Amino acid sequence: MPRLVVLISGNGSNLQAILDACASKSLDARVVAVVSNNPDAFGLTRARRAGVHAVLKTRDRAQDRRAYDAELAALVASYEPDYVVLAGWMRILSSAFLDRFPNRVLNLHPALPGAFPGVHAIERAFDAYQRGEITQTGVMVHLVPDEGVDSGPVLAQESVPIEPNDTIEALQARIHQVEHRLLVDTLRGLLTADR
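Above: the chain's sequence. Below: its structure in token form.
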């Protein structure tokens, strides 16, 4: 059965979507470890509740970024993942990590390709809508081949319209619903294609 390692920094709602899909057998895979760089990440609790290894890997401020990424890569590699899923991982990974898993690191980003890379994408899209610059935003799942921010080859994308009476919270909720489905569907497609 394909093995997934999921990297998170926060709440872990996308992790939960993967765990639920694995438990219901709608995703023929197993999450073998969840790694977080944040000791307060609720996603670690989600992992423990699902019986999955929950690993905290913080970076000391004095530690070189590439040295941390090399240690993180060794940790992740010890679980022999078929894919590494960045589901709310809030650090840019260097080649010291990415070169260990070529074409096997996926990232979920709450914006369409080329729009709002990096952090606070939903908030920036909402602000752009308020200024009349856009009418929709979206979600994408992409490969992470290098240190480019949200710029890797797109595996899946879906538009999310912004409604005139939307609040930021309403928009976030709709985007999260799309994220949960699109991430699981994309993983299912990749794993099916690998067979």
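Helices lie at 13-23, 42-49, 65-77, 95-98, 121-130, 168-194.
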